[in-house]
Amino acid sequence: MGPVCIDAEPACPQDSGEPDSWGRAAPCAPGGGVLLLKLRSLRAVVAVIGHESVTQAAHSLHLSPSAVARAISDIESELGFPLFQRSVRGLVPNPAGSLLGMRATRALAELADGHREAFAHAVRSDGAERNVERGAGRFAEVVTLPQLSSFVAVSELGSGALAAQRLQCSQPTIQRNLDQLENLSGMKLFRRTPQGTRLTDDGLALLGPVKRALWELAIADDELGRFGGRRHGSVVVAALPLSSSFLLPQAIDRLVCKHTDLMVTIVDGTYDALIRQLRHADVDMIVGALRVHDVPPDIRQEALFDDTLRVVTRPGHPCFNQCATTLADLMTYDWLTPLPGTPARTTFERIFVAEGLDPPKTRLQVNSSAVVRGLLSGSDRLALLSPVQIFEELQSGELAVVPVPLRDATRAIGIATRSDGVLSPGALQLVEELRAVSAAMRGGA
């Protein structure tokens, strides 16, 4: 496998590091967590738990029993507390060890499964006959964290120099890590373009599993904090545009008041973009309008409450003087519509079809709640919005509800997570707060 061609740059200055997507500490950067730096030791932990024997674990790892024992002692020393009980039976995992074993097992499985799927794609593409299963096992067994973190950084930043700056190393080091990763994986992972270094299809297939594996280890570091007297953690939540603006702020406010050491990051975007980030573990959950049809099989949805849309405009809109009584009476006006392919757009079109009307043809497709409110207050346009979403604007008189009945205008608001994911403590606590706020909303309805 040839080199990955990244623009040559001098070694980057040693600075304080830079967070990766949405503020999570980058692997190998300061603050990235003990576990992210101990991938080899984690393999020893998983092997000892799985085989219930240091000797058998050593055999499976092609190491000596003393090397396995040293690896476990090393990670326990870094963590500051034991993971195993020493007895005549050997090493028996304690609660911290069992928790770490679960997360590390999931991380290593992501690496093996991700390589298996990406490599199978590569084999289908070039027609070569190679052992996919053997390659997957070897990849998970010997890949290193510097190789994985360099892969993620370059894929996200599109530049070896920027990746080196994030990871506080030289650009030649990034180059060497990627060359080693390509040789180990047996695939070409990057291609050079005028816009920068970009992933190949094989590299893209590998990226999601690698990021999920690193996410598992970052979450394990948070979970193990309580065993060492540390209370910290992070949660990244994505908010769908034009969904309830009351639910998430209320839940987050309750959460951070109870857990002062928890860092919460909120991002937004379109449904398709956020689903990709959820699959890559860039976000822990998505909050907003749920899909009714075509829910991706790897996504789990939990409905929290039903939200009913109403026709909304500015108070002085001409339709109030014309005494509009049906949706059909409003068809001559300009409408604001959600973006195509989103749950909000599906609901928008469904409401008109339920009234026997063709959805209006509009020139303005809007993805931002703030922009929608601004366009409504300064024009004669109409939109379908939730009264909960614009509660303050309705109270202040900036916007008003047009009193026409609508059919099929109810949508479910809730949480979307990965079906195979195990949420972090912070994410689980946010889910509980979302449920509590939703229950209060239903009770006050």
What would you say this structure looks like, in words?
The strands form five sheets. The chain has a five-stranded mixed β-sheet with strand order 6-5-7-14-8, with helices on both faces. The chain has a three-stranded antiparallel β-sheet with strand order 12-9-13. The N and C termini lie far apart (63 Å). The longest helix has 32 residues, at 95-126. It has three domains: 21-214, Winged helix-like DNA-binding domain superfamily/Winged helix DNA-binding domain (Arc Repressor Mutant, subunit A); 231-305 and 412-444, Periplasmic binding protein-like II (D-Maltodextrin-Binding Protein, domain 2, 3-Layer(aba) Sandwich); 310-408, Periplasmic binding protein-like II (D-Maltodextrin-Binding Protein, domain 2, 3-Layer(aba) Sandwich). Residues 1-23 and 25-32 have low confidence and may be disordered. The chain is elongated, with a radius of gyration of 26 Å. It has helices at residues 39-51, 54-61, 65-79, 95-126, 132-142, 145-157, 160-167, 171-185, 201-223, 247-258, 271-279, 318-321, 343-354, 369-377, 391-396, 425-444, and strands at residues 84-87, 90-93, 190-193, 196-199, 233-239, 262-268, 285-289, 299-308, 310-313, 336-337, 364-365, 383-385, 400-402, 410-418. 47% of the residues lie in helices and 15% in strands. Belongs to the LysR transcriptional regulatory family. This is LysR family transcriptional regulator. Keywords: DNA-binding, Transcription, Transcription regulation. Residues 37-94, 143-200 form the HTH lysR-type domain.
